[in-house]
C-alpha cells in the first residue's frame, strides 16, 4: 500500500513491446536503486508495479517493469518524469490515507491557474460515478500524489498544488489535456460498492 507522499521522481528511459507484453524502464536515483530489491513494488504515477530487473548501464541506474497491455502502458508514452513511491514497510510511521496503487480510472486536466504565491490551482474532469461519493476536503491520489479536494462540481475536481508539491513531483509539468491516474480512498470505494449493491437489490425487489 502507499501513502501518496512522494519523495522522488524518475525518468522514463524506454517503453517497448516485448513478446509477453510491454517493458517499461525507468532511470532512478542511486539511493532508490541501492535500497530497493527485485520483486519489490513501487507506485509509478500511482500504479503499483513490480520491479523485474535492475541494471546499471552507462552510469544510469535503471529499474525494469512489465505491463500486460498498451492500454496500461500508453500513459507513460506522454510523460518523461514519473512520480515514484515505495510500498510502505513494517514499522514505518503512516500519516493520511492509504492507497492500493490501483487507479480507479483517469481524469483529464482542463485548466490550471497560478497565484502570485506560487500555488497552482488545477481542475480535472472525471466522468465516473465514484465522483458522487466525494466531497470538499476528501483526499484523492492523483498520479500517485496525495491531494485534498478544494472544490467539486458535477464532473470536475479542483485541487491546489503548493510549491513543495510542484518541486517534488511531476504534476507541475502537465499541460491542458494531460491525463492523470486517479484513485480515491479505498474506504469510500468500498462504501460505494455496498450502497450500489443495496440499491440494485431494492430495484430488483420492486420489479
Please characterize this protein's 3D structure.
- With 207 residues, the protein is of the alpha+beta class.
- It has two domains: 8-86, Elongation Factor Tu (Ef-tu), domain 3 (Beta Barrel), CATH 2.40.30.20; 105-186, Elongation Factor Tu (Ef-tu), domain 3 (Beta Barrel), CATH 2.40.30.20.
- It is 18% helix and 43% strand.
- It has helices spanning 30-35, 70-73, 163-168, 186-206, and strands at residues 8-18, 21-28, 41-44, 47-57, 60-67, 81-86, 105-114, 120-125, 139-142, 145-153, 156-161, 179-184.
- The longest helix has 21 residues, at 186-206.
Q: What characteristics describe this protein?
A:
single chain; 207 residues; Elongation Factor Tu (Ef-tu), domain 3; 6-stranded antiparallel barrel
Note the topology.
Elements: E1 8-18, E2 21-28, H1 30-35, E3 41-44, E4 47-57, E5 60-67, H2 70-73, E6 81-86, E7 105-114, E8 120-125, E9 139-142, E10 145-153, E11 156-161, H3 163-168, E12 179-184, H4 186-206
Antiparallel strand pairs: 1-2, 1-6, 2-5, 3-4, 3-6, 4-5, 7-8, 7-12, 8-11, 9-10, 9-12, 10-11
Q: How many strands, which pairing sense, and closed or not: the largest β-sheet? A: 6 strands, antiparallel, barrel
The poorly predicted ranges are 203-207
Specify the overall morphology.
globular
CATH architecture field of the largest domain: Beta Barrel
What is the CA-CA span between the terminal residues?
Answer: 41 Å
* CATH fold-level label of the largest domain: Elongation Factor Tu (Ef-tu), domain 3
Biggest β-sheet: strands ordered side by side in the sheet = 1-2-5-4-3-6
Number of distinct beta strands: 12
How many discrete domains? Answer: 2
SSE order, as H and E? EEHEEEHEEEEEEHEH
Mean pLDDT: 89
Query: Percent range for helical residues?
Result: 10-25%
- Structural class by sheet pairing and helices: alpha+beta
What's the number of helices?
4
Percent range for β-strand residues? 35-45%
Identify the CATH class of the largest domain: Mainly Beta
Q: Radius of gyration from the CA trace?
A: 18 Å
Amino acid at each position: 500500500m502507499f501513502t501518496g507522499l512522494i519523495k522522488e521522481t524518475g525518468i522514463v528511459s524506454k517503453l517497448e513491446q516485448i513478446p509477453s507484453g510491454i517493458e517499461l524502464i525507468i532511470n532512478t536515483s542511486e539511493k532508490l536503486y541501492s535500497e530497493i530489491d527485485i520483486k519489490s513494488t513501487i507506485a509509478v504515477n500511482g500504479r503499483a508495479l513490480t520491479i523485474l530487473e535492475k541494471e546499471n548501464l552507462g552510469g544510469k541506474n535503471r529499474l525494469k517493469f512489465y505491463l500486460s497491455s498498451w492500454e496500461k502502458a500508453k500513459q507513460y508514452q506522454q510523460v518523461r518524469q514519473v512520480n515514484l513511491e515505495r510500498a510502505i514497510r513494517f514499522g514505518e510511521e503512516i500519516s493520511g490515507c492509504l492507497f492500493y496503487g490501483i487507479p480507479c480510472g483517469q481524469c483529464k486536466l482542463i485548466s490550471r491557474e497560478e497565484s502570485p504565491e506560487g500555488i497552482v490551482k488545477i481542475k480535472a474532469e472525471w466522468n465516473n460515478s465514484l465522483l458522487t461519493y466525494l466531497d470538499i476536503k476528501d483526499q484523492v491520489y492523483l498520479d500517485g500524489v496525495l491531494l485534498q479536494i478544494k472544490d467539486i462540481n458535477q464532473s470536475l475536481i479542483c485541487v491546489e498544488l503548493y510549491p513543495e508539491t510542484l518541486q517534488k513531483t511531476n504534476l507541475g509539468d502537465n499541460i491542458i489535456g494531460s491525463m492523470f491516474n486517479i484513485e480515491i480512498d479505498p474506504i469510500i470505494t468500498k462504501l460505494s460498492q455496498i450502497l450500489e449493491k443495496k440499491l440494485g437489490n431494492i430495484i430488483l425487489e420492486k420489479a
